[in-house]
Protein backbone atom coordinates (compact mmCIF):
# COMPACT_ATOMS: atom_id res chain seq x y z
CA UNK A 1 0.00 0.00 0.00
CA UNK A 2 2.83 2.44 0.78
CA UNK A 3 4.23 1.89 -2.70
CA UNK A 4 0.99 3.09 -4.29
CA UNK A 5 1.09 6.25 -2.18
CA UNK A 6 4.67 6.87 -3.25
CA UNK A 7 3.74 6.37 -6.89
CA UNK A 8 0.90 8.84 -6.51
CA UNK A 9 3.21 11.41 -4.95
CA UNK A 10 5.79 10.84 -7.69
CA UNK A 11 3.18 11.30 -10.41
CA UNK A 12 1.98 14.53 -8.80
CA UNK A 13 5.55 15.82 -8.56
CA UNK A 14 6.19 14.87 -12.18
CA UNK A 15 2.97 16.58 -13.28
CA UNK A 16 4.41 19.94 -12.15
CA UNK A 17 7.57 19.59 -14.28
CA UNK A 18 7.67 22.35 -16.93
CA UNK A 19 4.29 23.81 -15.91
CA UNK A 20 3.41 27.42 -15.11
CA UNK A 21 1.18 27.75 -12.08
CA UNK A 22 -0.98 30.51 -10.60
CA UNK A 23 -0.68 29.81 -6.91
CA UNK A 24 -1.53 31.35 -3.59
CA UNK A 25 -0.03 28.69 -1.28
CA UNK A 26 2.57 25.89 -1.22
CA UNK A 27 5.36 27.94 -2.78
CA UNK A 28 8.27 26.49 -0.81
CA UNK A 29 7.05 22.90 -1.06
CA UNK A 30 6.65 23.00 -4.84
CA UNK A 31 10.02 24.69 -5.38
CA UNK A 32 11.69 22.16 -3.10
CA UNK A 33 10.15 18.95 -4.48
CA UNK A 34 9.91 20.06 -8.13
CA UNK A 35 12.63 22.62 -8.91
CA UNK A 36 11.90 22.08 -12.61
CA UNK A 37 8.54 23.84 -12.33
CA UNK A 38 8.55 26.53 -15.01
CA UNK A 39 7.00 29.47 -13.08
CA UNK A 40 4.95 30.17 -9.99
CA UNK A 41 2.73 33.21 -10.44
CA UNK A 42 1.98 34.72 -7.02
CA UNK A 43 -0.90 37.14 -6.56
CA UNK A 44 0.38 39.64 -4.01
CA UNK A 45 -1.72 42.39 -2.47
CA UNK A 46 0.33 45.40 -3.56
CA UNK A 47 -0.19 48.66 -5.46
CA UNK A 48 2.49 47.87 -8.06
CA UNK A 49 4.97 45.21 -9.19
CA UNK A 50 7.89 46.71 -7.27
CA UNK A 51 5.93 46.55 -4.02
CA UNK A 52 4.85 42.99 -4.84
CA UNK A 53 8.49 41.95 -5.34
CA UNK A 54 9.47 43.50 -2.01
CA UNK A 55 6.63 41.68 -0.24
CA UNK A 56 7.75 38.37 -1.76
CA UNK A 57 11.29 38.99 -0.54
CA UNK A 58 10.30 40.07 2.95
CA UNK A 59 7.22 37.93 3.65
CA UNK A 60 7.60 34.84 1.47
CA UNK A 61 11.16 33.90 0.48
CA UNK A 62 12.60 35.75 3.48
CA UNK A 63 10.68 33.56 5.92
CA UNK A 64 12.28 30.75 7.87
CA UNK A 65 10.51 28.05 5.85
CA UNK A 66 12.81 28.83 2.92
CA UNK A 67 16.00 27.99 4.87
CA UNK A 68 16.27 24.53 3.30
CA UNK A 69 15.95 25.95 -0.21
CA UNK A 70 18.50 28.64 0.63
CA UNK A 71 20.88 25.94 1.79
CA UNK A 72 20.25 23.83 -1.33
CA UNK A 73 20.84 26.70 -3.77
CA UNK A 74 23.47 28.63 -1.80
CA UNK A 75 24.60 31.81 -3.53
CA UNK A 76 22.24 31.04 -6.45
CA UNK A 77 19.10 31.17 -4.26
CA UNK A 78 18.05 34.68 -5.31
CA UNK A 79 18.58 33.85 -8.99
CA UNK A 80 16.53 30.67 -8.57
CA UNK A 81 13.70 32.61 -6.92
CA UNK A 82 13.73 35.35 -9.58
CA UNK A 83 13.62 32.71 -12.31
CA UNK A 84 10.76 30.74 -10.73
CA UNK A 85 8.52 33.28 -8.97
CA UNK A 86 6.55 35.85 -10.95
CA UNK A 87 4.70 38.34 -8.75
CA UNK A 88 1.32 39.73 -9.77
CA UNK A 89 0.30 42.95 -8.03
CA UNK A 90 -3.41 42.55 -7.29
CA UNK A 91 -6.02 41.51 -4.77
CA UNK A 92 -8.48 38.61 -4.64
CA UNK A 93 -11.16 41.02 -3.39
CA UNK A 94 -11.25 42.88 -6.72
CA UNK A 95 -12.84 41.79 -9.97
CA UNK A 96 -10.29 39.88 -12.08
CA UNK A 97 -7.91 40.12 -9.09
CA UNK A 98 -7.46 43.80 -9.91
CA UNK A 99 -5.44 42.87 -13.00
CA UNK A 100 -5.89 44.61 -16.34
CA UNK A 101 -7.30 42.75 -19.36
CA UNK A 102 -3.92 42.53 -21.14
CA UNK A 103 -2.34 40.89 -18.07
CA UNK A 104 -5.23 38.42 -17.80
CA UNK A 105 -4.90 37.47 -21.47
CA UNK A 106 -1.14 36.95 -21.08
CA UNK A 107 -1.70 34.86 -17.94
CA UNK A 108 -4.29 32.69 -19.68
CA UNK A 109 -1.62 31.78 -22.24
CA UNK A 110 1.06 31.03 -19.64
CA UNK A 111 -0.77 29.25 -16.79
CA UNK A 112 -1.28 25.50 -16.84
CA UNK A 113 -2.56 24.99 -13.28
CA UNK A 114 -4.39 27.16 -10.74
CA UNK A 115 -4.06 26.35 -7.05
CA UNK A 116 -6.32 28.59 -5.00
CA UNK A 117 -5.88 28.68 -1.27
CA UNK A 118 -6.78 32.34 -0.91
CA UNK A 119 -9.39 33.56 1.51
CA UNK A 120 -10.82 36.81 2.67
CA UNK A 121 -10.03 38.05 6.16
CA UNK A 122 -13.30 39.96 6.33
CA UNK A 123 -15.15 38.14 9.09
CA UNK A 124 -18.44 39.79 8.08
CA UNK A 125 -18.53 37.77 4.84
CA UNK A 126 -21.38 35.31 4.36
CA UNK A 127 -20.58 31.61 4.26
CA UNK A 128 -21.82 30.38 0.90
Automatic annotation (TrEMBL):
Gene Ontology MF term list: alcohol-forming long-chain fatty acyl-CoA reductase activity; alcohol-forming very long-chain fatty acyl-CoA reductase activity
GO biological-process terms attached to the record: lipid metabolic process
Protein task: Catalyzes the reduction of fatty acyl-CoA to fatty alcohols.
Pfam families linked to this entry: NAD_binding_4
EC number: 1.2.1.84
Organism: Triticum aestivum
Name of the molecule in the record: Fatty acyl-CoA reductase
Family named by the database record: Belongs to the fatty acyl-CoA reductase family.
Alphabetical list of InterPro entries matching this protein: FAR, FAR_NAD-bd
Enzyme class: oxidoreductase
Keyword Oxidoreductase: yes
Domain of life: Eukaryota
Keywords: Lipid biosynthesis, Lipid metabolism, NADP, Oxidoreductase
Start and end residues of each Thioester reductase (TE) domain: 24-126
Catalysed reaction equations from the record: a long-chain fatty acyl-CoA + 2 NADPH + 2 H(+) = a long-chain primary fatty alcohol + 2 NADP(+) + CoA
